[in-house]
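Severity: low
Component: inverse-folding endpoint
Summary: output formatting inconsistent between runs
Steps to reproduce: submit the following structure tokens with default settings.
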């Protein structure tokens, strides 16, 4: 459903991805009221009765890059077009009987709604899998519109988007895809662009999923959220002041508040920390001694050898803008840490040294997205270092790769650089060094509150739990513990059990983003913020070039 062969940028990308994946468009259902072959043409304005401030800001400040019109005459030249008229009933639009019959005769798999307004009636059943439409907000909180606006206005840390199979109820269809992203309070335009861009992959993802697994939709959304409308002048004045305050705060934190992570060890198991009613407190953490003001330690993973805890960590330098993997040893008797020494050092950035034991060997799986592959390192006992053993996945910019052996398969969890805090991917293989295949539901989860891996998964009473990061309010705000309900080659499901951190009344109270259980011990990291000259210079140069 469209207005011709011109589409908004994110819509054009969705169509291109469908074509690239072999899902050829069979019909353009064109709105006869606004049809035009010219790329510069625009649909009938929906802003004619909107407030003066909204119209002015919409044209001058909120002009979305993803809404720029793109002509697709070449790509869609061979696709037949059908001009369709609708009958209006208040805000609803109903297709005529003759148009319905003609559309049904095409035996379409699904209809993608990139045109018309609130459609109802028999058109919703005119294709095998219905009409797919988008709502760029969380339907449980905000129905109506404008898209992506009200989370910024209401200081909601999370903005959402969904693709739904339409039903008669507004913004309450069957949810096919849904993501929760961090709200970008400093820029409504950017917040909206992220939501639109994120959803552009979903039609192709859903079509591929149907081809691989069939169509198994759930029930319609049960939302009773209020229906919002475009804000009036008074609310727009309030909103503009909020944007100004948020932008000042954003640039202040970005330029002057560099992260200072540090690593600690707790004499409690990860199971006890997770399921105990007693929260983690600063007094029970033994912290490593901080290095210079230009370095920090983060992302602990480890193993126990000769009754001592060996801790692998990201060793980051602000002046170099990169990290290596270092190793320190904790002595439980003296309760002291050795001086960290380099264990894995390369020309590019390495972080998140995920440690696991398999057979007689100890392995390290560091994040190495700048190399474009996931490399597995093996412990060299004679030299006390890790050496690269083999590549698990090539040509991929994976973030925080986490590997577990479960039900006789190896499961590799990670996010990708583009959506490193929100989109979770899974690959699996029969052997540790085998061929890793993508899960057909990838990304299996799109939630900034609980997607990105945050340490070693663990078992409790026979059930598998996965630590993940909550980056909704700030990067590495706290750890979410998820219970994995389904993990097979065709299914994935998990549910949130508990949030851990940040640690209150502690020097490191600004964030908490890794937990790794080692028997009776748990390794953690936490952060504070402090001004750093190297960080300031780099951020300032980046923003100067950007503008």
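Observed output (run 2 of 3):
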């Amino acid at each position: 459903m469209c207005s011709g062969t011109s589409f908004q940028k994110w819509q054009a990308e969705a169509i291109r991805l469908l074509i690239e994946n072999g899902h050829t468009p069979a019909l353009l259902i064109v709105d006869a009221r606004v049809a035009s072959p010219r790329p510069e043409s625009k649909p009938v304005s929906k802003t004619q009765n909107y407030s003066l401030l909204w119209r002015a800001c919409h044209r001058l400040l909120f002009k979305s890059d993803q809404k720029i019109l793109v002509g697709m005459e070449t790509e869609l030249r061979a696709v037949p077009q059908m001009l369709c008229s609708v009958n209006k009933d208040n805000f609803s639009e109903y297709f005529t009987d003759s148009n319905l019959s003609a559309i049904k005769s095409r035996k379409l798999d699904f209809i993608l709604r990139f045109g018309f307004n609130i459609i109802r009636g028999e058109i919703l059943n005119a294709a095998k899998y219905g009409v797919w439409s988008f709502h760029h907000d969380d339907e449980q909180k905000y129905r109506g519109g404008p898209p992506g606006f009200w989370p910024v206005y209401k200081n909601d840390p999370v903005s959402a988007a969904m693709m739904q199979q339409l039903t008669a109820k507004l913004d309450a269809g069957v949810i096919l895809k849904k993501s929760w992203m961090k709200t970008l309070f400093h820029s409504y335009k950017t917040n909206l662009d992220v939501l639109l861009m994120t959803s552009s992959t979903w039609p192709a993802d859903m079509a591929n999923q149907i081809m691989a697994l069939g169509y198994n939709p759930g029930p319609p959304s049960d939302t009773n959220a209020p229906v919002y409308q475009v804000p009036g002048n008074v609310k727009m004045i309030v909103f503009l002041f909020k944007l100004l305050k948020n932008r000042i705060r954003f640039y202040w934190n970005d330029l002057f508040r560099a992260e200072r992570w540090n690593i600690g060890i707790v004499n409690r198991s990860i199971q006890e920390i997770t399921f105990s009613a007693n929260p983690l407190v600063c007094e029970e953490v033994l912290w490593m001694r901080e290095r210079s003001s230009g370095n920090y330690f983060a992302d602990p993973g480890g193993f126990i050898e000769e009754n001592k805890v060996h801790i692998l960590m990201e060793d980051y330098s602000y002046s170099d803008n990169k990290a290596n993997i270092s190793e320190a040893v904790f002595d439980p008797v003296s309760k002291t840490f050795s001086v960290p020494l380099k264990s894995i050092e390369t020309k590019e950035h390495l972080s998140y040294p995920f440690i696991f034991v398999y057979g007689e060997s100890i392995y390290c799986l560091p994040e190495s997205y700048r190399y474009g592959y996931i490399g597995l390192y093996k412990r060299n006992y004679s030299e006390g270092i890790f050496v690269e053993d083999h590549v698990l996945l090539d040509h991929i910019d994976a973030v925080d790769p986490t590997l577990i052996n479960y039900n006789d398969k190896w499961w590799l969890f990670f996010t990708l650089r583009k959506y490193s805090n929100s989109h979770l991917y899974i690959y699996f293989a029969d052997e540790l060094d085998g061929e890793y295949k993508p899960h057909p539901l990838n990304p299996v989860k799109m939630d900034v509150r609980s997607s990105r891996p945050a340490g070693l998964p663990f078992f409790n009473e026979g059930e598998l739990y996965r630590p993940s990061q909550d980056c909704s309010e700030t990067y590495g705000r706290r750890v979410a513990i998820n219970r994995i309900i389904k993990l097979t080659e065709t299914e994935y499901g998990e549910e949130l059990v508990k949030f851990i951190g940040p640690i209150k009344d502690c020097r490191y109270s600004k964030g908490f983003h890794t937990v790794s259980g080692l028997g009776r011990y748990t390794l953690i990291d936490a952060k504070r913020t402090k001004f750093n000259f190297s960080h300031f210079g780099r951020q300032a140069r980046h923003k100067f070039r950007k503008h």
